[in-house]
Amino acid sequence: MEKSNNQKRYKMTLNRKFFLGFIRIHILHHASQEEIYGVQMMDELEKHGYDISPGTMYPILHSLENEGYLKSRKENVRGKIRRYYKITSKGKKILIQSRQKAAELTREVMN
After folding, report:
1. SUPFAM superfamilies annotated for this entry (predicted)?
2. Residue 14 above 50 pLDDT?
């Protein structure tokens, strides 16, 4: 049983490493279309088969903001403070570059 749990944890860690870049790009994509918030993005990513916890989502959002790709504002929603994020001009530039790189890599991998 313990070996099975270790294998599951290893697989989850490996998957997280591989897909973290995709998740960041996906967040930037949605933030380029409208303001986003953490739970909304966790729900969106779940539709695509990603199981993202708050302990993963919020550090990603904070790092994207600290790196200058997103900016946020706070709003009181039903007595709780919600942070909304939108893409910055720096974020738009990296999103364009990421789309180009993803398209190039996808063409190569799929052939």
Report:
1. Winged helix' DNA-binding domain
2. yes
